[in-house]
Design a protein that fits this description.
With 215 residues, the chain is an alpha/beta fold. It is built from 6 helices and 7 strands; from the N terminus they run H-E-H-E-E-E-H-H-E-H-E-H-E.
Length: 215
């Protein structure tokens, strides 16, 4: 098994400017200056014996943009995990991701085979299924039922239950104003845990200093 590096390898591509003339000979190139600064910064932790660590509070912001059953869980599971680590956590629901926090749709999310070239049966992983089968009447309903059974067998909470857990743990849920308007929604149509419907500008301010993950 290959060794996993604990620090990133940052290549030095050098100075992309034309060769320096006589007047520039005494000036260090930006590439060399950055290399020296990087070498100096890397030398300091080695001298003290412990690498410098970020001491500020951590924040994670997940953008949930898809409303399929299989795409609902990545953001919810990661958000729940972040909260378990004591990290300030926000989820921003936009476009079809708004279905996750809309009362009339959140309990009826579907899983479709259409366009999913990685689709296969759990018991035959080496035998991919043609994604076009998703167009057969009743296939989406069957695929959704199968996925829900798998989730139940693994004791994974439903989307609504996951949201309840996240809110109870101190997570923050936000709706996208544009998606809210496009869907002709009213605040009464939303899951109670949504704190507010905000604009993209509000989201940019909210996410400042956070690690943003788009799903």
């Amino acid at each position: 098994m290959s060794e996993i590096l604990t620090t990133p390898i940052i290549p030095d591509f050098g100075d992309a400017r034309p060769a320096a003339g006589p007047a520039d000979a005494a000036k260090p190139s930006p590439g060399k200056a950055k290399s020296k600064a990087r070498a100096s910064a890397e030398a300091e932790p080695a001298a003290s014996g412990t690498p410098a660590a970020y001491a500020g509070p951590r924040k994670m912001v997940f953008i949930a943009s898809k409303g399929n059953l299989d795409m609902a869980y990545p953001a919810l599971i990661m958000a729940n995990a972040a909260l378990g680590e004591g990290i300030e956590t926000h989820i921003f629901f936009t476009f079809w991701g708004f279905d996750l926090v809309t009362e009339k749709t959140m309990d009826h999310l579907k899983f479709t085979m259409l366009g999913n070239t990685a689709m296969h049966l759990p018991m035959a992983k080496s035998m991919p299924l043609w994604s076009g089968l998703g167009a057969v009447p009743g296939m989406t309903k069957m695929a959704t039922s199968m996925m829900k059974k798998q989730l139940d067998d693994l004791e994974i909470p439903s989307v609504r239950e996951m949201l309840d857990i996240i809110v109870a743990a101190g997570g923050h849920l936000w709706g996208c104003k544009m998606s809210f308007d496009m869907n002709g929604l009213d605040e009464n149509d939303l899951y109670d845990g949504v704190e507010a419907v905000i604009s993209a500008t509000d989201f940019i301010e909210l996410s400042e200093g956070g690690q943003i993950i788009f799903v």
